[in-house]
Design brief:
The chain is an alpha/beta fold and 489 residues long. It is 46% helix and 9% strand.
Length: 489
């Protein structure tokens, strides 16, 4: 039997008629086995978020958000894309409209997002942490929701740190450039009163971003300053990156991350790479072949650094970024004008991993694809390089960006189960800039439990709650906790 919750109260003590509630206790759980798996095994677990884009400064300073628009809409390109599609002018997304006007525009958009994961996420995020589930967001409810959430954001327990505690977060890994001084991470590490562990992630994308020579050289100069090293040639570039890698390790970093359109694994010689770097440093553009060889060489060297320290390396592959030139010039990157790319990936990815494996230098690796057409490619690719040294050493990461919705998550997990070991999966990440996005872990856990519960109900998996329930606990938390080896507090 399903549990039926017949009544409740909102965060402000208002009685709730549960017959009218969309986000019920058993949301997405479509059978009794799924209900039991979620509530007994998944729901109580803490969250280990090993990839996100939260600003560490806001956590260190325990930032308080002025209103619901600041915490919910500022910087959220998922919502901006939906608002633009709904005909909302740009001033309500990234422009000069007031926060209330932007929130009201979002409330006009939400009823039109049914079928989009934003509809689920929005109402989960109103429920947690704000406790609002007695109404749906729309223009007629916007003022009341705005007032209630703003009152809570001004109260104790709804600062950045308070929200992390409320969401049950144990570990956060932010995303950080090698030139970052990690001062905010140091401040957090020195604060014994805050139980959430916050670690940096080494994200050296700008080291291979050679398309803009001026921007690349400006970044190399900053890298040299951060490493206290004059970068004169390719060898000193590698030395500077190694010094920053050491610095990040000393601050608890155990993870790197790379955002790539495809993998790079061309053959090259050291003289070719040295010549390419010298060419860049005098302000000359590389041709296509030179760019690919330079990227291939540097990615290999960075992977070796990860292996030497026992880090986990992550590769997010397949985004085609900044497609709208007019809006890129007006707003810059990460503003909602990216899409799924379709560059060939199987051969260069195999070649990249194979070289590291042949050299005995293949670190624990998580691969994320953005193009769903590559699902089976990635699911089978990791099996080529499992070596028995670590359970699930090679991982196919959770549904990412355009795929972190119900259908995308289900397809990823079913494909992983078909071609590998779902039981060794390290689970979900937020990959978000929002402190409210921790509901994505809840969303994932409900989907996982429904998938496995359905298998149990259909006789495709044993009706053994100890066996399947422990698998749920592993995927939701314990596999990741064992896999990453973060420093103990």
């Amino acid at each position: 039997m399903f549990r039926r919750v017949r009544g409740g109260r909102s965060a402000f003590g208002n009685l709730i008629n549960m017959a009218d509630v969309f986000i019920t206790d058993d949301f997405l759980l479509q059978n009794p086995a799924a209900v039991r798996l979620y509530h007994e095994y998944a729901e109580p677990l803490p969250i280990l978020d090993f990839h996100c884009h939260l600003p560490p400064r806001q956590i260190a300073e325990d930032h308080r958000f002025a209103n619901l628009a600041e915490i919910w809409l500022h910087g959220d390109h998922y919502k901006w894309r939906a608002m633009r599609a709904n005909g909302e002018p740009e001033r309500f997304c990234t422009g000069d409209a007031s926060d209330w006007e932007k929130f009201l525009a979002w409330s006009r958009t939400v009823p039109k997002t049914i079928g989009n994961p934003l509809y689920h996420w929005t109402h989960l995020e109103l429920y947690r942490p704000f406790g609002i589930r007695d109404r749906l967001l729309g223009p007629e409810t916007a003022q009341g929701i705005w007032d209630e959430c703003n009152a809570l954001l001004a109260s104790e327990g709804f600062s950045c740190r308070g929200i992390l505690r409320r969401m049950g977060v144990a570990v956060v890994c932010t995303t950080d450039d090698p030139t970052d001084n990690l001062a905010w991470h140091a401040a957090l590490a020195a604060d014994p009163a805050f139980p959430v562990r916050v670690f940096p992630t080494f994200r050296p994308d700008r080291a291979i971003a050679v398309e803009s020579v001026d921007q690349f050289n400006a970044w190399v100069d900053r890298l040299g300053e951060a490493a206290s090293l004059e970068i004169r040639d390719y060898a000193s570039l590698l030395e500077a990156l190694a010094r920053r890698h050491d610095f990040f390790h000393a601050h608890g970093c155990r993870v790197s991350d790379h955002g790539l359109d495809t993998m790079y694994a061309a053959d090259y010689t050291q003289s070719e790479v040295q010549a390419a770097f010298a060419k860049l440093r005098v302000g000359r553009e590389l041709d296509g072949e030179e760019r690919v060889k330079f990227k291939s060489a540097l990615l290999y060297e960075l992977a070796v650094m990860d292996w030497a320290k026992g880090w986990v390396q992550q590769f997010h592959i397949g985004a085609m970024r900044n497609n709208n030139t007019r809006m890129f010039r007006a707003l810059g990157p990460d503003t909602g004008f990216d899409s799924i790319g379709d560059l060939p990936v199987a051969r260069p990815l195999a070649a990249f991993l194979d070289r590291l494996d042949r050299d005995g230098r293949l670190a624990k690796t998580i691969l994320y694809n953005l193009n769903p057409a590559d699902n089976e490619v990635f699911a089978t690719m990791i099996g080529n390089f499992q070596d028995g040294t670590t359970p699930g050493k090679m991982q196919w990461g959770s549904g990412w960006w355009f795929l972190d919705q119900k259908d995308g998550m289900e397809r990823q997990m079913r494909t992983l189960a078909n071609h590998g070991l779902l039981s060794r999966f390290v689970g979900m990440v937020t990959d978000s800039r929002s402190f409210l996005s921790y509901t994505r872990h809840e969303y994932f856990r409900r989907i996982l439990c429904n998938l496995l519960g359905t298998e149990m109900e259909q006789g495709l998996a044993p009706r053994d709650f100890s066996l399947i329930g422990e698998m749920v606990r592993d995927i939701c938390y314990r596999n990741a906790a064992a896999y990453f080896g973060f420093p103990q507090s």
